[in-house]
Design goal:
Blueprint (H helix, E strand, L loop, with lengths): L2 H39 L5 H20 L27 H16 L3 H8 L5 H15 L18 H7 L5 H14 L7 H7 L5 H14 L7 H7 L5 H20 L1
Length: 257
């Protein structure tokens, strides 16, 4: 056998080994790319459980809000004449005990209550909408005493629904919604243009409602000062009084800033 013949099998073996090595490297690359792609595409192990938890929380909040339908207004005065914490409060009527329990439940559910209440502002029943607007002020106004603490819920997620509810056909809903916007404070500055328009409404209650909300927004509502000064000459004494109060609140807030 000549020398070339003896070298050929060695060359073939080397070529075969090199080819096999290339195939192994290519296969390893495919495995790595496939693994990485699967890892990116696969959902997080905690995602389904998180979605289930969020769904259950939403359902609990909606169920708590639905209980407001069983609590007709009028209710006892809230903001005026609250008893001292040291005083022994008189016993509450059964309806008010139920109302307090619903408010406590909404507050205990935390921020999940806010979008649930916002959705209920579109309810067909005006009495339900009034109850919802009152409940938003209770959980977000910082003046109600709760067993789990007196922290306010953040009403900002409800602001779009509150702005829409300023056009509600029921004056009671509009008045409480204005209070809710006032509770949000400076963070409700996006409501100022809508409230300025409302100051020129033919309905006196709506004009007064707008004054109250602008006063609660504070210095962030200073663009509305010309409209509020115009409201000092309103035909309604209630609107004139609300305008004076709003101007004073905006001036105080501006002085502090």
């Amino acid at each position: 056998m000549n020398r070339r013949a003896t070298r050929e099998p060695h060359s073939l073996q080397s070529g075969s080994r090199n080819s096999r090595a290339r195939r192994l490297v290519a296969a390893a690359g495919i495995v790595l790319v496939t693994s990485a792609t699967c890892a990116l595409a696969a959902p997080s192990p905690g995602a389904p459980a998180e979605a289930v938890r969020a769904g259950a929380e939403t359902a609990r909040a909606d169920a708590a809000v639905a209980k407001l339908r069983e609590l007709p207004l009028p209710l006892r005065p809230f903001r005026e004449g609250l008893p001292s914490a040291k005083a022994t409060p008189p016993p509450l009527p059964a309806l008010e005990v139920r109302r307090q329990r619903v408010y406590d439940e909404l507050h205990a559910l935390g921020q999940a209550s806010v979008p649930a209440l916002a959705r209920a502002l579109r309810d067909a029943d005006p009495e339900m909408r009034r109850n919802v607007a009152v409940a938003l002020d209770v959980v977000g106004g910082g003046w109600w005493h709760f067993p789990d603490g007196n922290s306010k819920l953040d009403l900002r997620p409800a602001l779009p629904a509150l702005l829409a509810a300023l056009q509600d056909s029921d004056p009671g809903v509009r008045a409480w919604v204005a209070q809710d916007i006032s509770d949000i404070g400076a963070a409700a500055r996006t409501a100022v243009p809508r409230l300025r328009d409302l100051l020129h409404s033919p309905d006196a209650e709506s004009r007064g409602t707008a004054c109250n909300a602008l006063g609660g927004i504070g210095s962030a509502a200073r663009d509305a000062m010309p409209d509020l000064r115009g409201a000092l000459n309103d035909s309604s004494p209630e609107v004139r009084q609300a305008a004076r109060a709003a101007i004073a609140r905006i001036d105080r807030a501006a002085a502090l800033n």
